[in-house]
């Protein structure tokens, strides 16, 4: 019962601070031309930031990658992560990259074996 009441609350008071954090950090992740969004665009901007951090795991050295992951966690949650939380997010990004690579390999092998999308 308490859960259903919680879902009926207006999310705006929670969304506004997240949107503000995303707008402040977006230029760091996405460059100076990063968009400034209102609450309705927060999800899309969060997705862009997450994809940038995901892509960074291939491009940067470990120290820079860890820094980006830490900043992403703080941006999304407004809390400083513990070392265990940071490691868990970093590991999840690594696993997601491995899964993405595996999926791409599957698509490639299905295409090269003659299976095509019409």
Name some characteristics of this structure.
single chain; 118 residues; mainly alpha; 0% strand; globular
- The proportion of strand residues reads under 5%
State the helicity in percent bands: over 70%
Task: List the uncertain runs.
Answer: none
Tally of helical segments: 5
Give the termini separation: 48 Å
Structural class: mainly alpha
Overall pLDDT, averaged? 80
Number of strands: 0
* Rg over alpha carbons: 18 Å
Topology summary:
Elements: H1 2-7, H2 12-30, H3 42-59, H4 62-77, H5 83-112
Helix pairs in contact: 2-3, 2-4, 3-4, 3-5
Summarize the structure.
The protein is mainly α and 118 residues long.
Task: Write up what this structure looks like.
This protein has helices spanning 2-7, 12-30, 42-59, 62-77, 83-112. With 118 residues, it is mostly helical. The longest helix has 30 residues, at 83-112. The chain is globular.
